[in-house]
Amino acid sequence: MTLGDPTATGAARSRAFVYNGGFLTNRRIRRILSLSGYDIRLGLPRPEDTVAIWGNSPTAHRGRRIAQNRGTPLLRVEDAFLRSLHPGREGEPPLGLLLDRSGLHFDPAQPSDLETLLATHPLDDTALLNRARGAIERLKELNLSKYSAFDPDAPIPDPGYVLVIDQTVGDASVTASRGDRARFLEMLVIAQEENPGMPVLIKTHPETLAGHRTGHYTEQDLSDRVSFVAENISPWPLLDGAVSVYTLSSQMGFEAILAGHKPRVFGQPFYAGWGLTQDEDPVQRRQRNLTRAQLFAAAMMLYPVWYDPFRNQLCELEVVLDTLEAQTRAWRQDRLGWTASGMRMWKRKHLQAMFGQHQKIRFLPSPPTPSARPHMVWANQSREAEGSVTRIEDGFLRSRGLGAHLVPPLSLVTDDLGIYYDPTQTSRLEEWISKRETLRPDQEYRAERVISALVSKGLSKYNTGGTAPPLPKGHRILVPGQVEDDASILLGTSTVRTNLDLLREVRAANPDAVVIYKPHPDVEAGLRSGRIDTEGLADVIATETHPSTLLSEVQEVWTMTSLLGFEALLRGIPVTTFGAPFYAGWGLTTDLGSVPARRGARPSLLGLVHASLIDYPRYLDPVTGVPCPVETAIERLAHGQPPKRGPLNRALSKLQGAFSTHAHLWRR
Fold first, then answer.
1. Residue 656: partners with Cβ closer than 8 Å, 6 or more residues away
2. Mean pLDDT, the chain, integer
3. Positive or negative, the Cα torsion across 21, 23, 28, 31?
4. pLDDT tens-digit map of 211-251
5. Going by C-beta distance under 8 Å and a sequence separation of 6 or more, which residues neighbour residue 205?
6. Is residue 403 pLDDT above 60, yes or no?
7. What's this model's pTM, rounded to 2 decimal places?
8. 577 in helix, strand or coil?
9. Which residue has the higher pLDDT, 350 or 641?
10. What confidence score (pLDDT) does residue 405 get?
11. Whole-angstrom distance, CA of residue 113 vs CA of residue 52
12. Are 559 and 387 in contact (CB under 8 A)?
């Protein structure tokens, strides 16, 4: 069985005959259907086959007629409630589908599979409901909706308004709820009557904002009390500021429930009739009362079919949230385009891949005058740049191979405040660590899985080196060597600033311990400074050794600012620092150096990991070439699928090895 093999789902195969070209041209839809057990076919079905139609689209009548004439069951296919970054009309494939053999979730004419779930499923599994609560919080925190390309800079209205939700003319859910302009106008009038003196905001549909379809409200419906919300705003802060919500059948009514509202509903959408809405036109057969978590669990976890584009297989909702988190973060940061200065030529192609997918990066000889585009510089050049800049640096899960060998990184961090290795000023990572002092259960679980994957797969920053040499018995302390002119040493240490001084301090404090010194890989390669004579200070010099093989054999790690200290914490190994690395000062390490007093939060290890490996870096999948979550990056590194060097990088790497004493010419 191969990854993504349809047999992995255990679904029985069924031939699905289609009469809509979208099923044939959209590769993602075909793949999800295949993984769900449906093989797309053309022609005429037999009674044991299936006819697939797209919701209540203009072409759906063809399939309905053929299914009726040939006694074949119907499969109604729709986009899932959490679809993609941009609308499908802009060509973006879905991350999930709704496959319904009974009806349409938005059409109350007959019960759909979703309505049956809501009416009959126990929905009492504690683990399922806890997952639902965590996922609801993630949607809010990440500002995710059906389409999630919201403008993070769009102004949010002052709280204290009535929210009326518009929908597009001709939308199938509007038609199914017998909606028309008169019904929308009635809703607007009632919203004003029931909330005298309150401002009323009409939320325009995303496809109307994009110019794809018209809405029901026009400029003629506005007044001194009534105005449009025409900006591309996330629904979550908009719902937070509303005192009441009015909708016909919009999915935003569902989100209003999740945000804590009891919306006034004028149609008969799937979320109406379960005790969570004020229904103008109730569906009489819906008599059960549900909690928000139960409604969400059925509609978002049990009903849809979700797809993981990185593993090419079906998945749980949480994996889709991970995917959308990575994609939306990249779009929100990159949507205006970047300018960049001082970037070495060998880095530019990869930077373009990482940050230039929505607008190409403009590489400039020097920082520009202020413009609408944000400006990036490599972190070690940021002190030379004037004005507001975003600092770029390698992430903590970088590659299989050294940056000094011009191996491109799989992850990069962006920091508009400082940079993680510079404790002289606050950084965005410090803010994330402080924020993660408390974690929700779903966040703890995700961080636990990340730690488990890293440790079990033996991953580190560069993932180079072989097995550990034979080690003497006794209390073993690992001392990682560092590049002595590295910025983390120059900025993050005070008294102990060299590898030799570090070893002397460790030996003086632990005269009977087995001290294992591991030179930095760049130093071993002859590309950076830091070679020392360890005579009388180290019992073992572990050259060309993978860090994970050493960490499994030692009882402590003593370091200045090395990332290996962070990797030791992941494995439960006590760490002593002489500097102020990003992981020091939070109560998780023994700190013999000076750490910033502002690091007053006391996160758990899980909080540190969530901030450092999930919140702070960006990852680029080397296989698909798109932004990905940390879990995908871990799998790619474990399977040896990091970004590969091109021929120019390989040639430059050999050249710099031959002239390593002049490393300052290429190293930035």
1. 404, 406, 527, 663, 666
2. 91
3. negative
4. 889 999 999 999 999 999 988 899 999 999 999 999 999 99
5. 166, 167, 168, 213, 215, 250
6. no
7. 0.92
8. strand
9. 350
10. 53
11. 15
12. no
Distance from C-alpha of 396 to C-alpha of 451, rounded to nearest angstrom: 13
CA-closest candidate to residue 294, choices 135, 164, 146, 147: 135
Structure token digits, residue 660:
């390593």
Q: Which among 646, 641, 10 has a CA at the least distance from the CA of 310?
A: 641
Element (H, E) at 619: strand 617-620
When pLDDT is averaged across residues 609-617 and rounded to a whole number, the result is 98
Measured over the CA atoms of residue 189, residue 190, residue 195 and residue 201, the dihedral's sign is negative
- Longest Cα–Cα distance of the chain, Å, equals 90
Pairing of strands 96-100, 305-308: antiparallel
pLDDT at position 398 is 83
| Per-residue pLDDT tens digits for 320-338 | 999 999 999 999 999 999 9
- Residues in a beta bridge with 246: 164, 264
Burial of 482 (0-12, 13-18, 19+ CB in 10 A): buried
* CA dist., res. 562 & res. 627, Å (int): 27
φ, ψ dihedrals at 177, nearest 5° = -95, 15
Q: Indicate the residue type of 156.
A: I
Alpha-carbon span 631 to 613, nearest angstrom: 10
How far is it, in rounded angstroms, from Cα 636 to Cα 293?
34
Region of poorest pLDDT, from 207-216, 245-254, 494-503, 509-518: 207-216
Q: Which residues of 286-304 are buried (b: 16+ CB within 10 A; e: fewer)?
A: beeebebbbbbbbbbbbbb
Across residues 44-66, what is the average pLDDT?
Answer: 95
DSSP track, 197-223: T--EEEEPPHHHHTTSS-BS--GGG--
pLDDT score of 9: 45
3-state secondary structure of 377: strand
Contacts of 34 (CB under 8 A, 6+ apart): 6, 40
What is each CA distance from 606 to 173, 389, 445, 586, 630, in whole angstroms?
Answer: 43, 30, 9, 12, 15
Give the span between the Cα atoms of 624 and 368, in whole angstroms.
33
Sheet-wide strand order for 161-165: 226-229, 200-203, 161-165, 242-247, 264-265, 278-279
Count Cα atoms within 13 angstroms, Cβ side, for 247.
28
**What is the C-alpha to C-alpha distance for residues 44 and 69, in angstroms, rounded to an integer?**
10
